Structure formats: structure tokens, C-alpha cells
Protein 1
Amino acid sequence: MDFALTEEQKALQRTVHEFAANEIRPVARQYDESGEFPWEVISKAARLELTYSGVPEEYGGPGLGMLDNVIIIEELGWGCVGIASAIALNQIAILPVLLAGTEEQKREYLGRLTDPDNPRLCAFGLTEPEAGSDAASLKTRAVRDGDEYVLNGQKCFITNGGVADFYTVFATVDPAKKYQGITAFLVDADTPGFSVGKIEHKMGMRASRTAELILEDVRVPASRVLRGEGQGFYVAMETLDTSRPGVGAIGVGLARAAFEEALAYSKQRVQFGKPICRQQAIAFMLADMATKIDYARLLCYRAAWMLDQGMNAIKESSMAKYVGTDVAMEVCTDAVQIHGGYGYMKDYLVEKLFRDAKILQIVEGTNQIQRLVLSAQLLA
Ligand code: COS
């Protein structure tokens, strides 16, 4: 077993870390406060191919693997969870096309994303107001009409909603068929009848755009169905199986940022005549934080490595997601605690990190859903 990254992976990690330190960190607070979409940073990320690193070379991307992407995403998460999510969730939205697209669909849709001078994003449209964890109960309808489908419904909490060039929209052709009626459609943002509703005003992850999508008689050619009618639920599940280690990695990057802040603060904050890092209560917290970050990262690396080998990693991906993001919340909570009252103030980075951490336990399947997926695998 080799725990070392390759020379290429180390170079990639350095490059993305420098990008996060020089291009993300300096503007992270500004975007957190304004809630504006960080197009300027996204454009710079696109020049490094970070917005489409998972797109294979034949479609214009660098064709990086899952482990490479987990390395990238950890560094972006260290920079800012909001900006990292805008980039990483674009990578996730690429997956349905990659996993289920025809050659023609891949050329058309992946090809759109790979012009570094004209960065374009995509989005994953599964969640609805009444279908969150219970994804199979979605209500958006698709009715066949000749060579087209007519889509009507509503999506919510869609990352990159309103800034994406195209969407994978999941709709049912027959609600009575439950998950077997769900079908995945590639929908261009400029299709008549497609519009963006409410833009959410969030607690954290504020640099990423979260929006409602409204579909009113949206006509989509049958050639834009992914994998075939009734296959959409499987496309969604396979996408999530593949994407979850990346979400865990955002958590690892965030936790690392919080740990660094807590360590530095505890070295310079003197109470009872010595730096608080020399108080055993704080020293043990630091030890636990460092250990958690390491085991979370190892789980993310293992799941990503398994996916790169083409192995079934449903169980391991869920572990990586929930451990990576639970660790992020735990480490951020301790980092605020170590800062005492100062940690609650906006002058200190840990205040932002704490707010950013919470959403990671909810997105991409709540951490309770991860345990459900994992236990179903154990009991199968
Ligand atoms: N990977 C591949 N296939 C899967 C799967 C997975 N992780 N989970 C379920 N399936 C398949 C099953 O094998 C079954 O197929 P067959 O009947 O053909 O054998 C089918 O999908 C239905 O499975 P199940 O009966 O378990 O479906 P449920 O409706 O009970 O789904 C979960 C349960 C929790 C797995 C699903 O609703 C889910 O993932 N919810 C979370 C959604 C989510 O993550 N949302 C986040 C927002 S998107 S960013």
C-alpha cells in the first residue's frame, strides 16, 4: 500500500493551494458578505481547468481522475466553501453526462464547459420542495409529445441555479411508476418556459448560488434524455455515489482551515500565565482535531481511489461524505470554542468557517441519508 501522492498529484495540490491562497482567501469574506456569485474567481479557476477537471481529454478537458479531483476540492474547500462549492458542484453536475450521456450528448454538453476564456457552468436539478431526501417522490412531470417532452414543475436549492448554461433536470413520465418513471433531461438555460425563481439567502456557503428553478411547458427534444426513459433515478444515484467523496473533501479542506486558525490562535493567546495550547484541555482538543482530519481525508482518498479503479464504492463514498462533513462541523465547533468569545466575532475567520460547515452535513444527501445508504449496503 502506497500512501504517497504521485509527483503530478503533489504538483496539482501545490498549484491549487496557491490558487486558493492567492485568489480565493483574499476575496472570500467579501463574497460571504455580499452573497454575489464569484464569476471573477470562477474565470480564473477555469483558466487552470479546475471547473472542468473531470472532463475527459476527448471532450476538451484534462481528464483528471476522482482522486485528483478530491485533492483539488480539498484545497478549494480550504480556501472558501462557497467558492469551492460553485466549482465542485459544477464537477458534480458534469457527472450525469459523463456517466449516462451518448457520444453526441457528451460532445455537445461537455464540450460547452471546456473553453477557459468563456467559462460556463452546469447544474444538477433533482431536489424539489416536497422531494428532498425522498428523491423518488419528485413531482416534476414530463409528458411525451412527438419528438419532444414537455416539462412542468419546480426545483429548489439548486447549486449554480441561474448561473448555469445547462441543467440535468429529473422529471417523472409516470408518477405511478415511482422511481422507475423518473427520467433525466438535459435542459438548456435559455429554453422557453425555463426560469429561475427565488435566490436563497443562506447562513453560510454564501458565495455559491442556490436557486429555485421553474419549468412551465419547457419543451426538450427526446434526444436530450440521458440513458432512456425511466432510467433517471439510477443516473441520479450513480451520480451521487460518485460525487460524495468530493463533498467529504470540501469538509476536509474546511476542517484543515479551522484547525490551522485554532492552532495559531492557541499559540499566541495567553491565559493563566502560558499559551492556551499548553493547557491540556486545549492541547487534547487540537490532537483530536488533527486526528479527525486525517481519518476523514483517508476515507475520501480511499473512496475516490476505488472509483478510479472502477470498483463499487457506494458504501465507501457515503462514509467519506458523512465523515468528511461531520468532521468539518466538529472541528469548526472546537475551533470557535478555542477562540472563546473572539471566535464568535466576524473579525475572526472561524466565525465564517463555522457557518459554512453546517450546510455540508445537509447537501448531497444529508448525513442521515448517508447512514441509510451505508446500512442498506451492510444489510443487503
Ligand atoms: N446506487 C445505485 N443504485 C441505487 C442506489 C445507489 N446508491 N440506491 C438505490 N439504487 C437503486 C436500487 O438498486 C433500486 O434499483 P432496482 O429496483 O432496479 O433494483 C432503485 O435504485 C430504488 O432503490 P430504493 O428502493 O432503495 O429507493 P428509495 O426511493 O428507497 O431511495 C435513497 C432511497 C435514500 C437511496 C434515495 O432516496 C436517496 O439517495 N436519497 C437522497 C437524495 C439526495 O442525496 N439528495 C441530495 C440532493 S441532490 S445534490
Protein 2
Amino acid sequence: MLVNGKPQRTIWLDPDDPAKVCIIDQRALPFEWIVESLLTVSDAARAIREMHVRGAPLIGVTAAFGVYLAALESTSNVFLSEAGNWLKHTRPTAVDLFYAVDRALRAVLAIPEGPDRVRIARNTALEMAEESVRSCRQIGTHGLPLIRKISQEKGGGPVHILTHCNAGWLACIDYGTALSPIYLAQEEGISMHIWVDETRPRNQGARLTAFELEQQGIPYSVIVDNAGGHLMQQGMVDLVLVGSDRTTLHGDVANKIGTYLKALAAFDNQVPFYVALPGTSIDPSLTDGMRTIPVEQRGAVEVKSIEGWDGRKRTEVLLTPSNTPAVNYGFDITPARLVTGLITERGICRASEEGILTLFPEWKSP
Ligand code: MRU
């Protein structure tokens, strides 16, 4: 998508030195634009753990590039397997990470040790990045008719869409998941206004989704996380579109903390609640999301303080008494019964085993 009018992706190889993997340090957005080079697998692991990159699809592709960087360091079986383990221990919830590491390692370990492994690792990572771009574009194509229909029903009046966290191109390689149908609707000239949940504690909505929509020229307003229910009661939300970090075979959806409350409010107010996600964010090995999806807990400091721009630099300030205890669950699980549908690269399905298997029949147990 566009940054200052120019097309931009979230991860790429340095054209002058393909041994460097370039990323945007998303911790600095929207205040500063910092491009960072990853040179080793531990750089890649740190970038994921410390959230220089974030969002399930981007975490997965960064991990695949991490396997490539590992292969540049050593092509031995022992080192590569260990590197895969480091990468898998960076963040627990987004299933794309595990899928990506397993796929990259499978490709690399299938051939004998030596320089060919570097080539295979690089090509696999590049291929996964391209596949993600295609999937996200397809998610947009399949989600667009939902927005078009509401627009027609409203006689062309603005479609009000609420989104949570950042499930745009910054969370992927390009287009995004939940924001992809919105970008395609914009191309079609559909009038829209997006309600952007700020998404405490790290404010991915206020910082990243707002940045994306601003750059794309799509009308939006940032709202506090608690405002969505009120807006829905007032008939000010036509559609909720969110992403997912891991969805079970039964359609239970793990997404950024606060998503579940939006789903409850949407259900109570008969507002359609759709989850947009690529197949790489579905975990066919899990069924009951409430009990089985690992929910990341992050440091209390993210709850107790907040970072902003003081006019010259990013600054963090304390929000609570300094000794206040705080807990920080990163994700919650929205049960399938609250989800109107899943928008995937293969089409829209019900959030159920039957629905998912219609689109992904390869996961049927023999
Ligand atoms: O903790 P993050 O920033 O990695 O959170 C993940 C997300 O970006 C969201 O939960 C998103 O809605 C799903 S990933 C497209």
C-alpha cells in the first residue's frame, strides 16, 4: 500500500545486499519512519519478540526470512533446527509463526547441507511473502461484496465499519486482512468511514491503523476501546471487520485483546461481525479455542505506561502509581457462535468445522 504516495511493503531483501532483510520498525510509527536491517537469525527473533514487526502474517514471513538468515550463518542440521526453535519461542499465539518455520525448515532440510540450502531458504521465504500478498488481495476480493451490499442498501451513503487492532498491510506484507476489503472498496469508489479502536495497551489501532488509513486517504475516527458498544446501540456501525492470530477448526477466533467484547456488542445489536484471515492463521489441529489457544501475556509495563510524541521525540509516561500491579493478556478468544463469517482467500464461510472444511478440504481427517 502507499506511504507518502509510494507503494511500500513491510519486509523485503536489500537490493544492494540480499544477505540483509529489511523491515520497518513498527514501534516508531506513526511518528518516525525507521527501516532496520536484520542480519542474523537472532536479529529476526528479536524483531518478532520485541514487536518491531507484528501481526500474524508478517510474524510468519519474518520467521521464514529468519530461517534464511540462519542458513547464511550455518547450513548444518543442528544449527538450523535450533534456529527454528528460537524463532518458535518468540511469541505464542499467532499460528502463522509455527506454520512458517516448519515449512521453511522442511524445504531446507530436504536437501543436503551446503550452499543450496541458502538458496532454497531464500526462495521459500520470498515465495511465502508473495503468497501472503496474493492471499490478502483475495481476502479483499471476497470481502468487498459485503461492503458493496451495505453501500447499496444505504443508497450510496457512507458505510461505517468498526475495526480493532491493526489488521492492515502493516500486519501482513501488503493489503492486510481486515483492511483489505476496505482498500478494494475504496478503489471502487464506495463511500466509507472507519471506526478505529485505539487498542490498548500498545495502541496498534490509534498508531498503525490510523497511519495506514491516513496514508490511503480513507475517512476514519479513532475511538477509545470502550466506545464500540455505544456506537453499535446508536446504529452507527454497519459492519465489524477484524483479523485473527489463530482460529481453530471449529471457528473460535483468537485476536487482539478486546475483540471478544466487540463481538458480544455486535451480536446484541445485530451488527454483522466478520473475521478476515488467511488459511495460514487457521490451526486445524485445535478445536476448542477457549481451552487450547495459548494466549500471550506481556509485561505489566505496557499497561502501566503509554508512549506518545512530545513534539520532538517519542516519550513514555507512567499512568498508574509506580507500584501498581498490572496484568497484560495480549489476546482473547471469540467463540464461533458470535462470528457471522470468516473471510478467507478461498471465499467466505461460516465459522464452523463444516464451513472451514468446505474451503479447506485438505484438513479433513482421513
Ligand atoms: O500483538 P500484535 O500486534 O502482533 O497483534 C496481532 C494483530 O495484529 C492483531 O491481533 C490482528 O488483529 C490480527 S493479525 C492480522
